[in-house]
Amino acid sequence: MQKKSDPKNVIVDGSRLVIESMARAGADTFIGYPITPANLLYQYAGRRLPMMLPAPDEITTVQWMSGLSACGRIPVTATSFPGFALMVESVNMAFMMELPMVIILVQRLGPATGTATCGAQGDISLLKGVISGGHKLPVLCSSDFADSWELAARSVSLSVELRTPVIFLTSKEEMMTRKSFDLTLLSEIKHISRKFYSGGEPYLPYGAGSDLVPEFLAVADNRWQVRMNASTHDRGGILQHSGDEALDNTRRLEEKPFRHLPGYTYYELDEQEGAETLIVSFGISAAAAMEAIDDIRESGRKVSLLIPKTILPVPDIYYEITGRYKRVIFAEENINAQYARIMFGEKLPEKIRPVGSLGSMIGSEDLIKEEARL
Amino acid sequence: MKRILKTNALPYCKGCGHDLIAKNTARALENLELDPLDVVIVTDIGCHGIIDGCLNTHTVHGLHGRSAALGAGISMGLDNQGKKIVVFIGDGGSTIGLQHILEAARLNLDMTVVVHNNMLYGMTGGQTSGLTPCGFKTSTSASGNPWSGYDLCALTHTAGASFASRVAGIGDISGSLQEAFDIKGFSLIEVMEICPSYGTRFNPKRKLREIIESSGKLPGIWKNDRMPFSASGETKCASLFDELRPVTPDFSSRLDKPFSLVISGSAGEGVQLAANLLSAAVVRSGCQVTQKGSYPVTVGVGFSTAELVISPQPIRYHGIDVPDIVVVTSEDGLAHCKRRIERMEKGMVFIDSSLESPRTGARLNRHDFRSIGARTACLYALLRFSADTGMIAADALFQTVEESGIREKIPLEKIRELIAGN
Predict the structure, then answer these.
(1) Which CATH architecture has domain A9-185?
(2) A·B CB contacts under 8 A
(3) Which domain holds residue B278?
(4) What mean pLDDT do residues A96-121 have?
């Protein structure tokens, strides 16, 4: 973020930044079903996006979004775990149909209904396995207001670029907390420029080129027949049991998010020369990690910090970075080291040290204590 | 004109009503002179859904029971562009997706749902569905279904559909389908049929018309005189930032380090509003603030708490474990933050004098905050805190209240007197 003019100080919450950013990027439709702590996003979207419709439940939400996306719109919704759980089958459908859309997942304390007004970072494992077959949805995670602004817009453009649903991952603490903020610090958001199939041959809805992303054409096109299909299908969108062409299409779906991963790998890295300990933290816990490294360094000890913002698929660079350290502290607001286990497996190597929390934010003192213990 | 169907050799069992529906659908659409590219056929899981490959129309093949919602999204997206959206769904799908059908009917979206009601789940072995008539035998009700099925047409009609009809899937039904397709708004046509693989096997001597008559859900037409859906024309703001009031730092602050403040009172007593005013005053005095609220899900009853971090420098972390300052104005507020107050080894607690004194290492400041009214007690407490400590510029807070929309409801002069008189 670069300061451009006289400050414009306001008190603002993350929800407002996210919706404004997505609107500027080109999101044009919001389908809402109320759930705490995502309600502010719903309210703002109703006032800002060209189309907003209230759905009767979260399954309908993603089905409507899929229909709208099939027509060339860019729909967004916001939910929390109980709503997301209902959406899962339909998110799989949108993934299989390759429909651009953004789902803002505002984490709260689970399991089940848990505590609606208590933050958490407990849905990361779920996101890893949310698509049947183990295929990946891109998951971008904001860790401060700048991310809320920039990654929200990027979620929109990424969903169009890759023809896929994208998860914008955040939490109650980021979306509902109001902060003093200088709006002139925000970068300019570019409205996406969307390309549609304009070829002279009949349209193949799943006929991708070397970039693995099929060109998009909205359903009901006047020139070419458009087919979309959530079942195993061939390049033309026709259902197939398990023919080679159809299975190749599913293999393409597996490879697509990885092929483009370098184009949406976002992280912050603050390395200190000579440090043997790395703190890895993301989302709301990253603020505590930033506070902690300042204190640790002030006390004369050396420490580095990695803030992943592209959560899934896990970029290779995270392994390169963590591989450089003797000890890696993972700070995430759950009690089962979800992201650490996604990266390093169920039995964590000795050098991976999770710091978790249940029902409250991780504090910098928790990390300072763990670092001192090593 | 190009035909709706690519072939008449459809992939259905001999005698299946789905074959009849598909061919009559094509005939009806052609009679309406619709080009295949003016038609979107949305199908889902069930034998009806394998028709896609035989169609020259646009096709969208979704999840079991969700085609009505998926078609609804397409209808919203196309928003009356002269395209015809036809949703195929089975009887099983229409119960798992019943809400989708009712919602589309309630909104009166421009689309037609064609229910292939063969009275059981044909693709999975002939199990009983929610539309299986009483007495009809299935693979899971060998002596006949003991319960009646839903009356889908009545439900759809009650929900507000422009048109609902039920027909027996015998002979030429293209006229009935054409009537449904020609409706502007939501239409549903329930076509009754017998699955030749399971329905006939389990009910060998029964005929379709007799089954329909004995079910009590007879063919018919139900209409509502309604306008079709159109997207809301509500005006949208050009930027959500236009709704924010920029705060000019027109006061100064003596604050030299961050502190945390918890305000705890009762719902409906202005806690969040007081916190909003305080935050604005903090920014007016050139400092930074984070503010979050906490209250039960019932919002209007119980405690209401605001947590603020206030600093002369930018704030990265807004969590508060043990606060520096606590303001408590009610029993609810005390009950909610008592344990936190007890963990304080230093700092200050501003507490209403009607409340018991918690055990704490913090200095207690007891005042009769509620004396000027419960709804302003919290604001009075904050003004008192700012005036007594100088940690927040009191003049900035007084001025912010003066300029606020609630000025007339706040006895500011009385508060000034009380504070001046200690």
Answers:
(1) 3-Layer(aba) Sandwich (3.40)
(2) 221
(3) 246-420
(4) 95
- Taking contacts as CB-CB distances below 8 angstroms, the residues of chain A near B253 are none
- Say which of B73, B231, B246 has its CB closest to residue A10: B246
User: Does A65 reach chain B within 8 Å, measured CB to CB?
Assistant: yes
Distance from CA of A228 to the nearest CA of B (A): 5
**d(C-alpha B63, C-alpha B84), whole Å:** 21
Q: With an 8 Å Cβ cutoff, is A259 touching chain B?
A: no
Q: Do A20 and B240 touch (CB under 8 A)?
A: yes
- Of B180, B208, B223, the residue at which a domain comes to its end is B223
Tell whether B41 and B174 lie within a shared domain. yes
pLDDT of amino acid A209: 95
d(CA B367, CA B377): 10
B103/A63 Cβ within 8 A: no
Structure tokens at B251: 């006061």
Q: Does the residue B1 lie in any domain?
A: no
CA–CA separation, B296 vs A221, rounded Å? Answer: 50
pTM summary value: 0.96
Residue A4, pLDDT score: 54
Using a CB-CB cut-off of 8 Å, the residues of chain A touching B73 are: 63-71
Bond before B196 cis per omega within 30 degrees: no
Comparing CB atoms, the residue among A72, A226, A239 nearest residue B58 is A226
pLDDT at A6: 84
Alpha helices in chain A (DSSP H): 14-25, 39-48, 58-70, 81-97, 124-128, 145-161, 172-176, 244-259, 285-298, 316-322, 338-344, 364-373
Tokens of B149: 């099925």
The CA distance from A348 to A341, in Å, is 7
Residue with tokens 């005390």: B334
Check B62 against A66: CB less than 8 A apart: yes
A98 touches chain B (CB under 8 A): no
A9 forms beta bridges with A182
Residues 6+ apart with CB under 8 A from B124: none
d(Cα A201, Cα B313) in Å, to the nearest integer?
61
Highest-confidence segment of A37-46, A108-117, B410-419: A37-46
Point out which residues pair with A281 in neighbouring strands: A331
Least CA distance to B292: which residue of chain A?
A177
A 260-299 residues with CB below 8 A of B?
A: 287-288, 290-291
Residue B271 vs residues A10, A175, B355, B395, B416: alpha-carbon distances, Å: 20, 20, 17, 20, 20
Domain A266-373 in CATH 1.10.150.130? The answer is no
**pLDDT the model gives residue B231:** 84
